[in-house]
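Slide 14.
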Amino acid sequence: MTDSKNTDQSLCLTVKDLVGHYGENLALQGINLEVHKGEVVCLLGRNGAGKTTTLRAIVGLLNKRAGHIEIYGQETISMLTEVIAKLGVAYCPEERGIFSSLSTEENLLLPPVLRPGGLSLDEIYSLFPNLKERRHSQGTKLSGGEQQMLAIARILRTGASFLLLDECTEGLAPVIVHKIGQIIRLLKDRGFTVLMVEQNFRFASRVADRFYVIEEGMVVEHFCREDIAGNLAHIESLLGL
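Slide 15: predicted structure.
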């Protein structure tokens, strides 16, 4: 694949014919998608469809991948994860990765600042007042919702403007899910771009601008929020709802 450049300056991410393997197993069979700057885009699909694998491939955490990935106009398919991060990309994994022996504030301060524009601690505490109250608490003492907020807050210090969020509402109480939705909308208002994987379609339909449905490692449907009402039965059948 040649190092082509996007002519559309509004594009944050372009993925074309992305193929990926876990070991000998083919997990992605030619993913195609786009994310524009300032958008919230959601990957939907049943368990095992390839949604998380797509995120991991984008940030270089999948060893065997091929195809075409451009981030801010730069070809990244052969880049290492740490190089991709310096383009302004941050990944919040489903497992959160909170260091239990560190306090909330120590967890926040741990990631390096890779680019200018990262949020200060004061800005983060303004977005996440719960974390300010628990800033001296160890990671093991935080609730699941607080840990998820910490995982999201932590990547905001790095200077990243393109956030990849994997299952950020899984297993959380409705009040915390609502709060995370508010935070994602606030981040969009501040100019962040978000690509998220989500099983909770009701939540995603209130937060995301556009959606890609993935089945067996391929995109089988693409629609906008405005399309949902007129196609709800079809969408729900695709998702097994």
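Speaker note: Residues 131 and 146 are 7 Å apart (CA to CA).
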